[in-house]
Each structure stands twice: as structure tokens, then as C-alpha cells.
# Entry
Amino acid sequence: MSNKATASKAKGLDVGTSRLVLARPVENTYQYEGQLNAFISLPYSRMTAGMLRREGILFSVEGSTILAYGNRVEEFANILNGETRRPIRTGLLNPAEPKSLQMLELALTKMCGKAQDGEKICFSIPSGSPNNQSDVIYHERTITQILEKLSYSVKSLNEGLAVIYAELERASFTGLGISFGGGMCNVCLAYLGLPVVTFSTPQAGDYVDYSASSVTGQTPTTIRLHKEEQFQLNGFSGNNIEQAITVYYNDMIRAVVTGLEKALSDRRKLPKFDKPIPVAISGGSAQVRGFRQHLEKEIRAADLPIAIAEVSLAEDPLNTTAKGTLMAAMLDM
Ligand SMILES: Nc1ncnc2c1ncn2[C@@H]1O[C@H](COP(=O)(O)OP(=O)(O)OP(=O)(O)O)[C@@H](O)[C@H]1O
Ligand SMILES: [Mg+2]
# Structure
């Protein structure tokens, strides 16, 4: 880690499908600030605008409409029986949302503020798939430009590698980092901090919510609340909501493990690891009870050309990506 003067001029930013998280160094620790990455449109009135201002809720006014952003919009969506809108879908700028850039600029300007002299920021980007590489370029360049407009010196970092920066310093940044998020799962195999293999899968938290909603007739929000508050991953359940969440959770894990088998199948491209490598997992979707154990079982049963040491869940799974990007900014990669 670099000296204090440099460290205080760095920020880390997780640009997630579900949440934006800003990390900054404060004395000897890191401080995190998260916002739900969602917004809602409300009819304009001076009273509504005044109320939002008083409550400290981010918003912009567009003619007869107010676009309100962040943590509190789910409350409004419930009261108004409306749906929240998302600037990001499956890890990337949402092509179906015309206000995505405007809402992200509003949120990033408010959360990050103007850069101090020479201040660095590093933000997370997902891995693309072979058929959407150009979408990742658009996503990466656009967010870079929003942050450069705020005068930051900007870098981006693969989300799986961010997990390794945050969690595997003790292993000299060698191992597997996997983030199980809302829009996707991001996987990185790194050797001494260098990414060897990165890939993503689109089956993550949103996939569980929407797929389970479809087969149970419940709303995705009902599924998500059940999943976050009481679900436990442990085999067949006679309760249809539990059973649907279990099936799609197994599918999420299976997609990552199959992806690993495929991505690592060409042994010639792999470095020689002299000992079993650790696996660090993070992200909101990794928080369900029983998840780590189930994933470990599947990874150990997989046909992988590398030996696996422990599989550990990050201490603070919702802030791990932000922490990794902050470390990357401070190390000035
Ligand atoms: N306790 C919990 N149990 C299960 N799932 C949870 C829990 N808490 C949050 N989640 C789920 O985690 C997901 C959000 O995770 P996270 O904040 O890591 O995603 P993100 O970084 O915004 O998205 P992505 O990395 O895919 O772009 C949502 O699907 C949410 O429902
Ligand atoms: Mg994430």
C-alpha cells in the first residue's frame, strides 16, 4: 500500500447492477457508502420536490416528471404500486433504459463529488461474453467519461480481480475470486495479481428472482425478500417458493462451475501453481445460508486442472468489490 498522502487521494467504486458502492480510506480502515442502483419517476409538484430535498433523496426534474434515485425509491415504488427502473442490467448499461446515463451521472456526481487535485478512482467492470465485448467497451468508456468529467484520474478493474485484491493478499493475490451479484457472477483466476482467466455468467440474483417468480406466480420482489430474509440452501423443499429458489440457485452455481471447467480446460495456458489455491467468494447472492458449503462441494466435484485449498466467504460480501477497487486505486495499478 502506498503512503498516506496518496491513499487519502483515492476512491474505489463498485458499479453494480443492484447497488453502487463507494469505498474510501478513513484513518486505518475503509468506509463504504452504498446506494440502491434504481430510480423511479414521480409526477412533479413543488411539494414532492421539497419533500425529496428535505429527506436528502437524489432527484432530477424533467418537465412534469421527477426522477428520484437511490436507497429510498423502493419505498415509493411500494406506495405507488410502481416498479423501480434500473440504469444497469446484467452488469452493463441497460440498453432498454433511456435515462440510464442521466441517472448514473446524477448518482456518481453526488456520491463521488469533484476530485481533489490528482485524485484517483478505480471502478469495477464485469467480464463480457464472446458476443458482447463491444458492449463492455461502451460501458467502460462511458463510466470513465462521467468520472473524468468530475476530474478524477480513472482506472477500471475486472470485478473478479477486485475480489482477489480485497480478499487474497495473504495468498499474494493468487487464487480464484468469484462475485455472486445481482446481475451476474464474475470469476477471475489470478496469479500474483495478474488475471489469467476471467469470465462471467448471467445467472445471478435477478435471474433467481425472475425465474422463481415465473414458476410460482409470486412477484420478483416477494421472491427476493424471501430469499434475502429466510431462505437456506439445503435440497428439496415442499414449499414452492423455497423449491423454486433452490432450483435456480443450483443453476447459478452449476453455471459458474461448468464455466470454470471450460475456461480452465486448456492447461497449457495455466501457470504452474506450486500449492492448492484459495477461492474467495463475495457478493449479495453468496450470503444465503448453506451457499459456501454447497459451492465448495460442487467445486471439489468438478473436473479442474488445479488443486483447490479453502473456499471462504468474504467478511463483508456486499462491500468486497468496492474494497478491491479501492485497493487497486491505492496501489496505483
Ligand atoms: N442476505 C441475502 N441473501 C441472498 N441474497 C441476497 C442477500 N442480500 C442481497 N442479496 C442479493 O444479492 C444481489 C445483489 O448483490 P450485489 O450487491 O453483490 O450485486 P451487484 O454488485 O449490485 O450486482 P452485479 O455484481 O451482478 O453487477 C441481489 O440479487 C440481492 O437480492
Ligand atoms: Mg457486484
